[in-house]
Amino acid sequence: MEPGPAHPRDQDLTISSAAAPEHPVDRIPALTGLRAVAAFGVCVTHAAFWAGDFTPDAWGAAYARLETAVPVFFALSGYLLARPWIAWARGGPSPDLRRYARHRAWRILPAYWTVVTVVYVIYLWRPDASPHGHGWGGYLRHLLFVQIYGVGHVHTGLAQMWSMCVEVAFYLALPLLGLALVRCAPRMWPVPAAMVLLAAGWIALVTATEVFGKTARSWPPGYAAAFAAGIVAALTVGRVPWTRGLRLGLLAGALAAYGLLVTPLAGPIDLRLPSPGQGVAKYLLEALVGGLLVAAAAGGPSRVLGSRPMVWLGSISYEYFLIHVMVMDVVVLNLFGWTLFQGSTWAIVAVTTAITVPLSWALNRSVDRLRASAAVPRRWR
Questions:
Q1: What's the confidence (pLDDT) of residue 13?
Q2: Measured between alpha carbons, how far apart are the two ends of the chain, in Å?
C-alpha cells in the first residue's frame, strides 16, 4: 500500500472512552496481518501479469482483480489515520499535527527514497527497454511522488509506486478531512459520503473523456472511496456490538463484492478503457472490499491475521511492496530467462518472495536504527 502503508505502531490511537473499544490497544495485530495479505496479493497479481495469466476467463479475472489489494491498503490508512480525529470529535484530545507529520515522514520517506535511488542506480548499467522515467527529471518526479501526473514518467521497476503518490496525497489532505469530521460531529457520515461521491464523479469523468489525460484514473480523487471505506470502519468499530457472526458477515460481503469484480460489471481486465459505469462499479467495489476487510480485522482478535508470523510479515509489508517489482524483474528475466507473458505465476511469486522478504527485513531494520539514532539528542551521542 501499503499501495500506502499506515502502520499501527506509527499512529496516535489515544481515544476517548466513548469511542474506545472494550479493550483499547495501540496496536491491532489483525490489521498488521491484513497488511501482509494485501502485500502478497499485489505480488501475485504482478506475477500473473508477467506470466500471461490474465486470461479471458474466471481465473484470469481473479488474478487481475487481486489489484484490489491496493485499495485495501488505502482503507487501512483511512481507518488508522482518521481515528484520532474521530476521537477528538467525540470529546477526546486533539491530534498532534507535528507528531503526525513526523511519523508519516519517517514511516514513508527513508525506505521509499532508498528503493527509488537503488533502482535508478541499477538501471545505470541494466538494459531498459522502456524509455520512460529516465534522467534527473524522472528521478526527481519519483522522489516527489508526482510521476503519475502525465504520461511517460514511470521508471521500470517502480511501476507500483503510483499508489504511493495516492497515499501521500491522502496524508496531506487528512488534516482538512479531520477538521471536516470534527465540524460535522456528532454525525460525521457526510464526510466519507462526500468522498465516495468525489470518487464516483471523478472516475465517470475520466473514463468518459480524456480532459485530464490518460493517467487520471490513477490520481488520488479516484481512490477517495477506498479511504472513505476505512473512515466508515473507524466510525463504526467500537460503536456496535461486535460478534463473530457480524465479522463472518463482513467477510462474506467482501467475498461477494470480489465476485462481482471478476464479472464484466467491473469492466475489462486488460488495459482497455472501461465504460463510465464499469469504471465507477470497479472502484466502488474495490473500496467496499477494502472497508469490509478492515472492519472485520479491526473488530476483534484473529488467530490467523494476529498470529506472530503474520504480524511479522505485516511489519515489513511496506518494504516488501516497495522492493518486489524490481526483484521480480530480475527473477523473470535473469533467473528464469522468461520473456513477458511466459512462465509460471506461482514460481515467480515463490522466488520473488524468497528474495524480497530478507531484503525487506534488512531495509526495515535499517530505517528503524536510523530513526532511533536520530531520536538521540546530540549531546548524548
A1: 32
A2: 35
Spatial contact of 6 and 81, defined as CB atoms under 8 Å apart: yes
User: Which runs of consecutive H residues, i.e. helices, occur in 209-344?
Assistant: 224-236, 244-261, 276-298, 308-315, 317-330
Q: For a pLDDT cut of 70, what percent of the chain falls above it? A: 92
Residues 6+ apart with CB under 8 A from 37: 69, 72, 305, 310
Neighbours of 135 (CB within 10 A): 10
pLDDT digits (tens, 9 = 90+) for 357-380: 999 999 999 999 999 988 755 444
Closest CA to 1 of 143, 168, 177, 145: 168
Mean pLDDT of 226-237: 97
Q: Output the nine-digit C-alpha cell for 9.
A: 505502531
Query: If phi over 0 gives left and psi between -120 and 50 gives alpha, with beta otherwise, what is residue 96?
Result: beta
Close Cβ partners of 362 (under 8 Å, ≥ 6 residues apart):
none
Angle between helices 29-51 and 345-375 in degrees, nearest 10? 140
Contact 348, 35 (CB under 8 A): no
Note whether 172 and 155 are within 8 A (CB). Answer: no
Is-contact 353 43, C-beta < 8 A? yes
Does the pLDDT value for residue 265 go beyond 90? yes
Cell of 244: 463473530
Dihedral of the alpha carbons of 82, 231, 112, 380, in degrees to the nearest 10: 20
How far apart (Å, rounded) are the C-alpha atoms in residues 107 and 12? Answer: 14
DSSP summary character for residue 335 = I
Which residue from 116, 28, 103, 166 is spatially nearest to 323, judged by alpha carbons? 116
Q: What is the mean pLDDT of residues 158-177?
A: 98
Residue 141, classified by CB atoms within 10 Å of its CB into exposed (0-12), middle (13-18) or buried (19+), is buried
Does 211 or 328 have the greater pLDDT score?
328
For the residues of 43-57, what is the DSSP string, one character each?
HHHHHHHHHT---SS
User: Percentage of the chain with pLDDT > 90?
Assistant: 84
Of residues 378 and 87, which shows the higher confidence score?
Answer: 87
Angle subtended by helix axes 162-184 and 97-122, to nearest 10: 170
Reading the block at residue 97, the C-alpha cell is 499535527
The yes-or-no verdict on residue 5 having pLDDT over 60 is no
pTM score over 0.70: yes
